[in-house]
Amino acid sequence: MAHGGGPFPDSQSAIEHAPCGLLQTDADGAIVWSNRTFCQWVGYGAQELVGQRRLQDLFTVGGRIFHQTHWAPLLQIQGSIAEVKLEIVTRSGERLPMIMNAILRERDGHVQQEIAMYVARDRDKYERELIQSRTKLEDAVAQANRLQAEAKDRALFAEQMMGIVSHDLRNPLSAIHMGAALLTRTGATQEQQTVLARITRSTDRANRLISELLDFTQARMGKGLAVTRQPVQLHALVRESVEELKMAFANRVLQHEQGTGDAPCYADPDRLVQLVGNLVANAMAYGSRDAPVTVRTCVDGPTFSITVHNHGEPIRQDLLDTIFQPMVRGENGNASGRSVGLGLFIVSEIARMHGGAVTARSTLEGGTEFTARLQRE
User: Per UniProt, what is the membrane topology (predicted)?
Assistant: First the structure.
């Protein structure tokens, strides 16, 4: 029925101007009544809708398909549908998003659809913004994943290349070292002896750097350092290592202190010597030149420890927090002849492969102390 003949004559004005669109259609969707609010929204007069158009004729193409495949079957099965969001095309061609509720009723032997609808511009805008935000987030995540994969590939390639190059550099360095040793025995002059000694020291340093690079590559590629445990007498092993290191640091005071315990420790002796050498070299590079460097060993129940102590400028707290990470070097002293900043990282890896860890503390009064505490068994 048209305006003036609505189903609630005593509430005519309230229904006509309700804050929602109200419609009645027959079972096929042909409009038999609409309130003024709906007419104003779509831009059609009542006489242009009632008996002239079906509700689905006002939908977009997608809406018509939805009406045929979902709306009509669900309404027949359930007798009602709720919160269906569709777009209605107004007289001017604007697409008006609407939320619709519909219910089937029988009146005078005829089945009718009663429909209430609400303009959903704000909701539609909000949903579109959510979709855009989700799309942007998915794109950002995908981009981050791509960058992470590329970074992982580059890192793996770099580490593999580092391992290959480091390994292949050892052969020519060994040849240079052997050649210098042979020339030393052939009655070289004093000046030649000096040059040969410099060549030998340089090749020794290059070999140490290569060893660190190989250990770093092995640790970073997830395999961990190779460790072969066997019974060792900790104090004797470290004391012998300190005696050898004294020759490398002939102008400095280096001493060994034997602490508690003398039980055998199950560890890789070569790795322990490497650990001591790295810690001592670090202490020599950054510690005070006129103060001794002390290496102390202790065996304490299920663990044993190696501590290297030196005096000098303390390490800043922000450096202490990252000092065992690769490529981190201190600021004091002269470490240019030492390494590329892998020594302490390798020390921490050696400790980790022995089921232990390395700690550091540094104060102006107490000096700097690195302690590696490892599992004895």
Answer: Multi-pass membrane protein
Cα–Cα distance for residue pair 31/2, rounded to 1 Å: 10
Choice between 185 and 118, residue whose per-residue pLDDT is larger? 118
Q: Is the pLDDT of residue 328 over 70?
A: no
CB 281 within 8 A of CB 293: no
SS3 93: coil
In the chain, ranges of CATH 3.30.450.20 domains: 9-119
- The pTM assigned to this predicted structure is 0.52
Longest dimension (CA), the chain: 128
CATH number corresponding to 9-119: 3.30.450.20
**296 strand-pairing partners:** 257, 307
Which two tokens mark 270? 């070569």
Beta bridge partners of 297: 258, 306
CATH match for 126-220 among 3.90.940.20, 3.40.50.1000, 1.10.287.130, 3.30.365.10: 1.10.287.130
The topology under which CATH files domain 230-375 is Heat Shock Protein 90 (3.30.565)
User: Cα separation of 167 and 216, whole Å?
Assistant: 13
What value does the mean pLDDT take over residues 176-196? 81
Provide long-range contacts, Cβ within 8 A and 24+ apart, for 39-48. Answer: 41/88, 41/90, 41/96, 41/119, 42/88, 42/90, 42/91, 42/96, 43/90, 43/91, 43/92, 44/91, 46/2, 46/3, 47/2
- Relative to beta strand 110-119, strand 31-34 is unpaired
Among residues 339, 375, 338, the alpha carbon closest in space to that of 354 is found at 375
* R_g of the chain, CA atoms, integer Å: 42
d(Cα 365, Cα 63) in Å, to the nearest integer?
A: 81
Mean pLDDT value of segment 54-73: 91
Q: Which two tokens stand for residue 18?
A: 């309700």
